[in-house]
């Protein structure tokens, strides 16, 4: 176990609060989805919070970049996109981060260097390397975090990109969030290997497996990886994690057992950090309660904001196609 | 100054790269090999491997890397060794390049040019010899250009490189050695501006890219028949210069469209529909299309030539539309 005492209390509190916010935001989103206020697909990140928060906590988003998949709510919140603009996007309102034109799978914030929110499995992986190529070309001091799921790791785009990232020494850290299921399929049934981090070796990159339920492990590993990536060695991390919900909100997830789900819930990423902090006198139960109440309130306010926001005008249909 | 198509394209890239260090060229064999069709000859020596990037044979991957670089502020020119291989990169072009601005609510622009040879070549069989413009023409969020002369190629490509949108720039694979006059001074040819290759009053023939040559050859025969054709070279497919088309139709009242892509739901069929919809009252005959035959390209040369628009086919179409 990592010694929690070596971290600033402020950092720990920040990471804890971000994880709770993601959890409460998504629970609210799921509720609104149930009420049909939100349409389409809704891929929830609940259970995986430690991966996004732990990794992104290392970044300076004035120079670093983040790209992720369609399961993007957690990463967007970790990058500092406001809950209001995200909930409004889910509601399809003009106040949404993508003006209501993106939806759940297409959160973007150019200023915060959050480049999506991408809906095609694996197709954003080369895009991330392209962003990294810009950093390299302009001799900037940034790094790109590219998140994707275990389903994407078999795509050609992943393998093509790792090869080019290595030959051009592009500063990217590829983070495979192995939540164990690619849609409804257990990854073990469709993967020739079970430790994805060894794929890094095929491209002369650095690879490591990390416990994605332990935010401190994620934080430390990504910190170390950033140094490597900036020194010309791209990194592939596999974060072992678990999603509590189905692939999307419409998936009852009958392909897995209750026992399995309960087992993972007992090592919940929020509980792990909370308990460790309490044990070391860095947090009191009441303080956690306060955080939780505050995050629930933020989520509710976001839903109220989205509810009250305007729909896009019909003429928005024809804007933003070309510049 | 008379130069070839490949020299005109190279000059456009060179002149723009000189001006703007954010422009990079990437693709298979664009650097050390000097380009499969020698378009990029000499550019590696001038700009080094920092700006001229040889890629592995991975169209989806390097198209995507170009798109990401464009989103972050560079201005990549991505060469497809041939557009036949761009089919592997279609997901990147359609799902990412074309839609990024829209689905980000106007935040992320993608200033990239995808260029390379397109259209039928000779003896290459079905997978290496086909005209793919319709796939890109179909897609909102892309601009599509297809020049027919070295002069146009240079002026249009410079415009494409400076544009902040993703541009598909189609060069006829058989056209690289074609020569033509090109102005000495710098010039730009804008999007959405067709050009009349001939003025005429009897019939409008609309075409673009390589088949323009066949159309102009056909015109020599039409002159012998005292048929006075107005020939329109579209140059830019998206945006399309509808005005020039309609003005001409109002004058001639008869139209043949020549397009070497397949006929179904094609550039040609769409323009035919636009004409019927917008200037129907001016038509004295239904619009006739001369396209590729609706078949994959055969290897056999006799069949191969017959699969494409020919002088004879265009002549027959003109006669049909003119009821002669």
From TrEMBL, chain A:
Record-linked SUPFAM superfamilies: Thiamin diphosphate-binding fold (THDP-binding)
Domain called Dehydrogenase E1 component: residue spans: 17-313
GO molecular function, one term: pyruvate dehydrogenase (acetyl-transferring) activity
Catalytic activity: N(6)-[(R)-lipoyl]-L-lysyl-[protein] + pyruvate + H(+) = N(6)-[(R)-S(8)-acetyldihydrolipoyl]-L-lysyl-[protein] + CO2
Listed GO biological process terms: pyruvate decarboxylation to acetyl-CoA
Cofactor names: thiamine diphosphate
Domain of life assignment: Bacteria
EC number assigned by the record: 1.2.4.1
Entry keyword set: Oxidoreductase, Pyruvate, Thiamine pyrophosphate
Signal peptide (UniProt feature, chain positions): none
Function: The pyruvate dehydrogenase complex catalyzes the overall conversion of pyruvate to acetyl-CoA and CO(2).
Quaternary structure and partners: Heterodimer of an alpha and a beta chain.
Protein name: Pyruvate dehydrogenase E1 component subunit alpha
Species the sequence originates in: Oceanotoga teriensis
Taxonomic path: Bacteria, Thermotogati, Thermotogota, Thermotogae, Petrotogales
Gene that encodes it: pdhA
From TrEMBL, chain B:
Domain of life from the UniProt record: Bacteria
Keyword field contains Oxidoreductase: yes
Keyword Oxidoreductase in record: yes
GO molecular function, one term: oxidoreductase activity
Names of the cofactor(s): thiamine diphosphate
Cited Gene3D superfamilies: 3.40.50.920, 3.40.50.970
Keywords per UniProt: Oxidoreductase, Pyruvate, Thiamine pyrophosphate
InterPro entries: THDP-binding, Transketo_C/PFOR_II, Transketolase-like_Pyr-bd, Transketolase_C
Residues in Transketolase-like pyrimidine-binding domain copies: 3-178
Subunit field text: Heterotetramer of two alpha and two beta chains. Directly associated with ODBA in the E1 complex.
Protein name: Pyruvate dehydrogenase E1 component beta subunit
Lineage: Bacteria, Thermotogati, Thermotogota, Thermotogae, Petrotogales
């Amino acid at each position: 176990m990592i010694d929690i005492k070596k971290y600033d209390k402020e950092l720990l509190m920040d990471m804890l609060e971000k994880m709770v916010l993601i959890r409460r935001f998504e629970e609210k989103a799921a509720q609104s989805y149930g009420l049909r206020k939100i349409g389409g697909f809704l891929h929830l990140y609940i259970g995986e919070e430690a991966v996004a928060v732990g990794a992104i906590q290392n970044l300076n988003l004035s120079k670093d970049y983040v790209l992720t998949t369609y399961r993007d709510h957690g990463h967007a919140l970790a990058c500092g996109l406001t809950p209001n603009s995200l909930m409004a996007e889910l509601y399809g309102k003009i106040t949404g981060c993508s003006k209501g034109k993106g939806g759940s799978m297409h959160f973007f914030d150019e200023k915060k260097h959050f480049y999506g929110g991408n809906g095609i499995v694996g197709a954003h992986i080369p895009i991330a390397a392209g962003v990294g190529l810009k950093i390299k070309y302009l001799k900037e001091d940034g790094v790109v975090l590219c998140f994707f799921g275990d389903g994407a790791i078999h795509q050609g785009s992943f393998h093509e990109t790792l090869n080019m990232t290595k030959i051009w020494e592009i500063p990217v850290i590829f983070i495979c969030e192995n939540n164990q299921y690619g849609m409804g399929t257990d990854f073990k049934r469709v993967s020739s290997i079970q430790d994805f981090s060894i794929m890094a070796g095929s491209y002369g990159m650095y690879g490591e497996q990390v416990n994605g339920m332990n935010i401190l492990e994620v934080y430390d590993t990504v910190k170390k990886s950033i140094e490597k990536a900036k020194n010309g060695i791209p990194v592939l991390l596999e974060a072992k994690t678990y999603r509590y919900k189905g692939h999307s909100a419409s998936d009852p997830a009958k392909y897995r057992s209750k026992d399995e789900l309960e087992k993972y819930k007992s090592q919940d990423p929020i509980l792990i950090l909370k308990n460790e902090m309490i044990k070391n006198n860095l947090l009191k139960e009441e303080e956690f309660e306060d955080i939780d109440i505050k995050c629930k309130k933020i989520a509710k306010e976001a839903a109220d904001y989205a509810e009250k926001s305007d729909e896009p005008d019909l003429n928005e249909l024809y804007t933003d196609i070309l510049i | 100054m008379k130069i070839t198509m490949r020299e005109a394209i190279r000059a456009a890239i060179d002149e723009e790269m000189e001006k703007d260090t954010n422009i990079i060229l990437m693709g298979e064999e664009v650097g050390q090999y000097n380009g499969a069709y020698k378009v990029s000859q000499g550019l590696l020596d001038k700009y080094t491997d920092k700006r001229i990037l040889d890629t592995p044979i991975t169209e989806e991957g390097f198209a995507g890397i170009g798109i990401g670089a464009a989103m972050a502020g560079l201005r990549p020119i991505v060469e497809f060794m041939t557009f036949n291989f761009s089919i592997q990169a279609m997901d990147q072009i359609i799902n990412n390049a074309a839609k990024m601005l829209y689905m980000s609510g106007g935040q992320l622009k993608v200033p990239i040019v995808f260029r390379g040879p397109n259209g039928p070549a000779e003896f290459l069989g079905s997978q290496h010899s086909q005209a793919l413009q319709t796939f890109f023409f179909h897609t909102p969020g892309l601009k599509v250009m297809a020049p027919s002369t070295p002069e146009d190629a240079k002026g249009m490509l410079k415009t494409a490189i400076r544009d902040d949108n993703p541009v598909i720039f189609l060069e006829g694979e058989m056209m690289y050695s074609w020569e033509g006059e090109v102005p000495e001074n710098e010039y730009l040819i804008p999007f959405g501006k067709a050009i009349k290759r001939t003025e005429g009053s009897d019939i409008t023939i609309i075409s673009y890219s390589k088949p323009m040559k066949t159309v102009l050859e056909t015109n020599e025969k039409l002159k012998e028949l005292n048929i006075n054709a107005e020939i329109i070279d579209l140059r830019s497919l998206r945006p399309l210069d509808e005005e020039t088309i309609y003005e001409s139709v109002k004058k001639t009242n008869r139209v043949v469209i020549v397009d070497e892509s397949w006929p179904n739901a094609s550039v040609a069929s769409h323009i035919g529909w636009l004409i019927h919809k917008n200037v129907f009252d001016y038509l004295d005959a239904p619009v006739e299309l001369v396209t590729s035959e609706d078949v994959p390209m055969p290897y056999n040369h006799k069949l191969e030539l017959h699969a494409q628009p020919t002088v004879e086919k265009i002549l027959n179409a003109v006669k049909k539309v003119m009821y002669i």
